[in-house]
Amino acid sequence: DRPKGRRVTKNRWVFDVKTDGRKKARLVAKGYSQIEGLDYDQVFSPVVRFETVRLILALAALEGMHISGLDVRNAYLYGKLDEEIYMEQPEGFKVKGQEHRVLRLLRALYGLKQAGLAWWRTLNESLKELGFTRLVSDAGIFIYKTKDGRFVLVIVYVDDALFCGKDKALVAKLKNRFMKKWECRDLGDVKEFLRMRITRKGDEIHLDQTAYLETVLQRCGMQNAKSVPTPLPAGYKPEPHTGPVDPALRSRYQTVIGSLLYIMLGTRPDICFAVTKLAQQAANPSQDHLDKALYICRYLVGTKFYALVYSGKSGQGVSACTDSDWANDPEIRRSQSGYFMKLANGVFSWLSRRQKTVALSSTEAEYMSLSDCSRQVVWVKMLLKEIDYLLGALPICSDNQGAIFIGSNPVTERRSKHIDIRYHYIRELIEEKQVELFYISTDENPADLFTKNLGRVKFLKFRGMLGLRFYESS
């Protein structure tokens, strides 16, 4: 019977059609009615980072790793609940004559605030029992090591998992042991992960989101739009809208920008600057901002069959490029930082963002960008070290000699003595030989793509240096 003084959680059915055509029905709890401290306490559960997935895929292309995938069926239902939670009987399954009675949940259900954490704890213990160790650098990666130096990596994102390793037999063995513990759907050689299509052609791995991109274009009504060569018109700078907020316009704008953000974060670094700049206007967009967001869609119409390509035969190791655009923001005069990292001749990590403080010179802006990039480089080194790849000093390229000089020498000059101490972190990395700075001319620096709105010629030149290539699978 319904307990007195206890909140009863409602539920609903959610229906979906998967990318492979399967139809799915799922009972979801309405977790928004839960009360913190009574129905749940902690809710955070880690997931693997996008850039980590791309890094492992690039490494797999270089090392010739075998990659196999699986999907845990109804994963959240395995998570055990510590709290006392009651739920109404689901629609279509109510017991006749006992509709007033409720269900006591012993296991997590999709929609509950703590469901993700409950499943994560269960999964973590399960993998530990199988001999896997969770990486410190990314809690979504687990590694199994043998005494003779072989290893298998498991990439986990909620209920999706990839098993990667050079030894195909060992990968299959560990995967089968995992599948005996949980009810899983064996996906075989990986074809898709996080809505990213993964295609292997010889020693190359192609990564694209063509199917999701077509869905976004249809949602925005842009599938038949005329294509354009660049994400934004040359020289365009968005200006803040000071008029009253239009709720309908804002809702549509945020829908478009949110969809573009997912594409950008997944496989399309070429739209990173454009999407980042327009996302800053999401609180109060104007019609002009919406038109420019749809302009990005027009660019994607003509490039929807582009993929990130990681080439094993390239033999290219980890490298980074960084750049900044001084006083890029016309309102608050802050600069724009941008950098990317490459492995196997394809980018796996990129960033474009407004700097947190005002830089008083272009050299200072470049120095701040160098320092931001160096922190990412150190994280990549730590992650690779955990899977037994020991690297020397990683190269970072910059197009500003002054910034390289300040980073390489402990100088305190009149024009640089005020720089925040946090940005001098790069000096320590150089002394410890974790990174090494190199000069690259502005005309040859692809990181320029992440800091400003380039014209067609430069944009197309730098886009080709990122590892993006036209590709349409059969």
Automatic annotation (TrEMBL):
Pfam families, per database record: RVT_2 (PF07727)
Stated name of the protein: Reverse transcriptase Ty1/copia-type domain-containing protein
Domain of life: Eukaryota
SUPFAM superfamilies given in the database record: DNA/RNA polymerases
Reverse transcriptase Ty1/copia-type domain boundaries: 2-232
